[in-house]
Protein 1
Amino acid sequence: MKARFLFTWCIFIRRKNYNTSPGCADKIVILGSGGGRHHIRTQYRATGGILFHFNNIQAHIDPGPGAIVRINQFNEDPTKTELFISTHFHLDHFNDLCTMIEASREKLHDKNYVYKKKGTLITTQEVLNFIPQYHLNMLEKIIPFTSNSRIKYNGVEIVGTKIEHSHTNGFGVRFNLSEYSIAFSSDTTVFDGFEENFHGVDILFLNLLRPNDIICKRHMNTDQVIPYLNKINPQPKALIINHFGAYMDSPLSKKNYVPSQVIKIKRETQIRSVIAGEDGLNIKISELLNKV
Ligand SMILES: [Zn+2]
Ligand SMILES: [Zn+2]
């Protein structure tokens, strides 16, 4: 119902030649489809995180190594970022955070050397302990966040989702907008109740490090996650798989397993729109919501 409303509204806006509807302009830009140490080192798949544009706000989620390079490479504007989110204290999720905070403004200070404050940072206390006070002082607002957190940001509800991942505390993040809901799983393995984070979500962005049944204690593989995807009620309209590890696609893997994982998920779930992340991929939210 929400999707139909958004579609109609987008058509109306297009006919009227307006470009002011937040939902119509919302998009995701993948600044990195790789995850883990191999891709950090080789950049075979980039590790710059994700830009999420919603309600005329630009958020940068998990700016890993090379984020500043990728945002320029893919013709996005770092000065437009006003919301920074780092989901946990691993390099591929926070390494370029200070760079992106500094790059989010054209001028650092006025002629009297008063530093301009801009932007909101949502992250774990562990990441905050690592960020220099110099960069923290550049921000308007700092929000320590956990998997139990729930805040309102410019009218949008942002909710932490549970992860089980390594020794570090962290969170996934879900945005409940008036027109749709989207969740970014962050790094996690599956666990009892994993699906409960995502009931009612329209778009799910899943960090799927490994293909088929290749086990990693800290991450999920395709065979592990499919039963949990089937328990999400209702099924998401679209699933984006991303943050692929070395076993999924790299010179160390036998082949690029990504296309076969898309086919498998489509075959074994009711989710009809399954999209594989690629470096620089630009996805309009309205198109995800209208695909059946
Ligand atoms: Zn990661
Ligand atoms: Zn991690």
Note: The radius of gyration is 18 Å.
Protein 2
Amino acid sequence: MFMKCNICPRNCNVDRKNAKGFCNSGDKIIISKVMLHYFEEPILTGGEDKPSGAIFFAGCNLKCVYCQNFDISHNAVGKEVSKEELIQIIKKLEHLGAENIDLITPTHFTSQIVDALKSYKPKVPVIWNTGGYEDAETIKQLDGLVDIFLTDFKYADDALAISYSKAPNYVKNAKNALTEMKKQQNSNIFEKNKLIKGIVVRHLVLPSHAKDSIKVLDIVKDICGSDTIVSIMAQYTPMAPNLPSELNRKITPLEYKTVVNHALKVGLNNALTQELSSASSCYTPNFKEKIIEI
Ligand code: SF4
């Protein structure tokens, strides 16, 4: 499928038939969890009681120190599936009433997923749920196949991206990728309160870094405009081992309020917010249990 992998800004240039790059993934699709997932933003499903059809891919091109899905992202634990099996999983999720197909951390399997979606395009929206460290040229391959970009914009400062995610040039790459996403999905389209096409930019507020969050919001507004849907997440939970001391706590009400107030001040009126009580490990799927839950 690819001779040397340069799918993402890591540019590992490895032959994934015989080796693994930073994402710890070979050329076969590995899935860590398939489930009906009730905890994504309700606009993605049309209501809190309706599920996304979540497919969590194993491995990740970021591996943030604070990752709440540590086992699957860092250790790439999961089950190998073929293209045909992936298509059957998507069809089964649709059959079970999933309101969308939520491809979670898909970047390092872009080629294989594009191949599957060209063979079978689901009837419900396809969501590209990414950490934002994307190559804009790779995002171009998704044109016509992905309906909603659910993308993180994690940092406005490359020093933080390097320190917490070992991701050089995160800011430039995330900006370029978001610009390409905006080209493909220029406006948000809803059907019965459910987003069926568009962009949702997620930003997880980290403890001790509200100032960086504010800069992130400014960047997102510059690229996508003030009507962008920005999901300002309060759910940071210190679950990963060996966290730096400044990340070893939940965010405070004041930190969250500072960021949300800035969104309102600059006119990001479609900002989605969370209760601080969402900062709990109970919202994280258990990746040690059954992989295919459907
Ligand atoms: S997808 Fe994986 S192997 Fe390919 S460039 Fe990115 S981190 Fe490296």
Note: The longest strand covers residues 194-204.
